[in-house]
Design brief:
Blueprint (H helix, E strand, L loop, with lengths): L1 H16 L3 H19 L4 H16 L3 H18 L5 H16 L3 H19 L4 H16 L3 H20 L1
Helix pairs in contact: 1-2, 1-3, 2-3, 3-4, 3-5, 4-5, 5-6, 5-7, 6-7, 7-8
Length: about 170
């Protein structure tokens, strides 16, 4: 049931957002076991549960596992949902965090440049998810010691967010 699965994913996101990472992990893993058995590994809900689980694993410091899960999930999302589907874009943004966690800062910057462009083209320059990619890209620039570009992007992101909130 789509409504039940949506509720289940919202519970995982709530637990993640509230910092209860272990419970979020437990729920996500249980949902994935059941949903893969019922729907297969390529179903949109399975992919979204994997995306949520990878976020949780990263927060728990399980960087290699999160990287592998995000990488596989992103590849499937691109082929099943398309590269510019909102869920694929979210997974694209997450993968940049995995690259940063691995210390691959230049690769993260290159990845996040593409992510920002895709987000802006699909969702618009001032969409919250686009602004999030801009923030991550600014972080990438800081990590490769291009502090001027990092500052510019952070400032641009802040200004666009302020303008968006006023509308």
């Amino acid at each position: 049931d789509t409504a039940v699965r949506t509720l289940a994913l919202n519970i995982v996101r709530y637990l993640y957002a509230s910092g209860n990472f272990q419970s979020a992990r437990t729920f996500a893993e249980q949902f994935l076991t059941q949903w893969r058995r019922v729907s297969g590994g390529d179903h949109k809900d399975v992919l979204m549960a994997q995306w949520n689980l990878a976020n949780v694993l990263r927060e728990l410091g399980e960087y290699p596992v999160a990287y592998d899960l995000d990488s596989a999930t992103l590849q499937k999302m691109r082929s099943i949902l398309g590269p510019d589907h909102e869920f694929t874009l979210r997974a694209t943004n997450n993968f940049g965090a995995d690259l940063r966690a691995r210390g691959e800062f230049v690769a993260a910057r290159d990845h996040d440049e593409d992510s920002r462009r895709r987000h802006a083209n699909t969702l618009g320059e001032t969409h919250l998810l686009t602004l999030r990619t801009m923030n991550n890209l600014a972080l990438d620039y800081g990590l490769i010691s291009d502090y001027q570009r990092a500052r510019e992007l952070h400032l641009e992101t802040y200004q666009q967010q302020q303008q968006t909130e006023r509308v």
